[in-house]
Amino acid sequence: MTSTTPLLQVRDLRVRVGERTVLQSVSLDVPAGALVVLMGANGSGKSTLGMALAGHPSYQVQDGQALLDGQDLLQLPAHERARAGLFVSFQSPPDVPGVKNNLFIRTALNAVHEARGQQPLDAFDFLASAKQAAQELGLPQAMLGRPVNEGFSGGERKRNELLQLALLQPRLALLDEIDSGMDVDGVRAVVTLVQKLREQGTAFIVVSHYLHLIEQLQPDTVLRLDQGRIAETGDVELARRIARTGFARQPATAEA
């Protein structure tokens, strides 16, 4: 690998969900530290891309390639993709009854540390860093001792995803509507964390329709997904145009 090679390379990815081929052919590059915003109407394939990269068994890759720092993601089981540095947030984070939040995150973090050749964190050191990160994200520290997402509000679930992101510090993060259910302070926490991790080299693909968030994130690239293909590539001006006119297909771009 050279410094000019993108961290993530996706080529002609085709993904089937049930009886429907949702992604027809998607190709994109994401350099280290870059931020790509992915927009598109409901059903265009935004979440499908994230779930396919993460290795969700309901999303069947029919063709194509996805490389993370030269490593073939599609040949790895889901947990090995995470150990390789991939983080995918849920659009609707589920409950994990009976599993305490702090144990869940610490186990995941130590698995990543092992993959990186780093020493595991003991419970004391982990709790100190988790409490600090929770405070910075506006997540009550009491949430650390509760079962994962059980009884959490929508905004608290999203902040809990941010807590995992802050502690895991992945190489590539795909955030699926991370702003959904967030208040103003929550959106500010998203922007602050993303900027901090980008400075450390983490690359991002952010699915969002919230123009205010997109403008604050200052993306390198904005992509419009349409019927399972990337129909347009632009910058923040593309996001602004979509905010004004919606996702109605334009004759000038329908061939893209």
UniProtKB/TrEMBL annotation:
SMART domains: AAA (SM00382). Keywords: ATP-binding, Cell membrane, Membrane, Nucleotide-binding. InterPro entries: AAA+_ATPase (IPR003593), ABC_transporter-like_ATP-bd (IPR003439), ABC_transporter-like_CS (IPR017871), FeS-cluster_ATPase_SufC (IPR010230), P-loop_NTPase (IPR027417). PROSITE patterns: ABC_TRANSPORTER_1, ABC_TRANSPORTER_2. The keyword Cell membrane applies. Residues 8-252 form the ABC transporter domain. It comes from the Bacteria. GO terms for molecular function: ATP binding; ATP hydrolysis activity. Belongs to the ABC transporter superfamily. Ycf16 family. NCBIfam families: sufC. This is FeS assembly ATPase SufC. It comes from Acidovorax ebreus (strain TPSY).
